[in-house]
TrEMBL record:
InterPro entries: Alpha/beta_knot_MTases (IPR029028), Ribosomal_eL30-like_sf (IPR029064), rRNA_MeTrfase_TrmH (IPR004441), SpoU_MeTrfase (IPR001537), SpoU_subst-bd (IPR013123), tRNA_m1G_MTases_N (IPR029026). GO terms for molecular function: RNA binding; RNA methyltransferase activity. Residues 5-81 form the RNA 2-O ribose methyltransferase substrate binding domain. Keywords: Methyltransferase, Transferase. This is 23S rRNA (Guanosine(2251)-2'-O)-methyltransferase RlmB. The keyword tRNA processing does not apply. GO terms for biological process: methylation; RNA processing. SMART domains: SpoU_sub_bind. Pfam families: SpoU_methylase (PF00588), SpoU_sub_bind (PF08032). Belongs to the class IV-like SAM-binding methyltransferase superfamily. RNA methyltransferase TrmH family.
Length: 251
């Protein structure tokens, strides 16, 4: 079986808590105990995962990132959800919430958006199979392991999926800097899908035309746009504010 490496304490902890097959946990000797490291070792013991302690220099040689925090796990590749599984999870939901990404190719942006989606209780994140960053160890690290707890599916055609989501009763809202309606004027309380595009290209024409509503984030300073992960976070949490008000996490 082919394995990939996930690095960093939080990402490793969420990976160990997940359902994927783990080959080995590598820990640098001399890493300060306590906090996340103690949790990591406890989960490894509970799941009978092999733990290897290595000299820090050797672990750094094996690591693929500078921010590994002295912890590496070798794990089977990420398991995507299927579109069918996503659709089944949405059936009957009065407040279904899905995020779709159009041509977001930076793994750090994908990881950040996935982390926000998971934190906000979004039901699923849908990515096109082409012109998009896949879920890699870099995405895992950027999401602090949140992708392990989020349904992520790849789709062959974003527009077709948007139409299918409409048939399931979801309102499809796209974000575009040229839109006439600001995001806080939009009613986002019902079942809906949010579509975000890349900073450079925005949404493709057919994607824009398939949306039921386009919204913008007003810019009051001199910069012309926001990073896509920041923009997604703003709109996602506006939707949660409208849906839950000042409730705490009830997921």
């Amino acid at each position: 079986m082919r394995f990939e490496q996930v690095e960093g304490k939080r990402a490793v902890l969420e990976t160990l808590r997940g359902k994927r097959s783990v080959a080995e946990l590598l820990v640098g000797e001399g890493i300060k105990s306590g906090g996340a490291l103690d949790e990591i070792l406890a989960v490894a013991r509970e799941k009978k995962i092999q733990v290897t302690f290595l000299p820090r220099r050797e672990l750094e040689r094996l690591a693929r990132s500078e921010n590994n925090q002295g912890v590496i796990v070798r794990v089977e590749p990420y398991r995507y959800s299927t579109v069918k599984q996503v659709y089944e999870s949405l059936e009957g939901q009065e407040k279904a919430f899905v995020v779709l990404l159009d041509s977001v190719t930076d793994p750090r942006n994908l990881g950040s958006i996935a982390r926000t989606c998971e934190a906000a209780g979004v039901d699923a994140l849908l990515l096109p199979r082409s012109r998009a960053a896949p879920v890699t160890p870099a995405v895992f690290h950027a999401s602090a392991g949140a992708v392990e707890n989020l349904a992520i599916a790849t789709v062959p055609n974003l527009v077709s999926v948007m139409r299918e989501l409409k048939q399931l009763g979801l309102w499809v809202v796209g974000a575009d800097i040229e839109a006439q309606t600001s995001y806080f004027e939009a009613e986002l309380t019902g079942p809906f899908a949010l579509v975000m595009g890349s900073e450079g290209e925005g949404l493709h024409r057919l994607v824009r035309e398939t949306c039921d509503l386009m919204v913008n984030i007003p810019m009051y300073g001199k910069v012309g746009s926001l990073n896509v992960s920041v923009a997604a976070g703003i709109i996602i949490y506006e939707a949660m504010r409208q849906r839950k008000g000042n409730e705490g996490s009830s997921r």
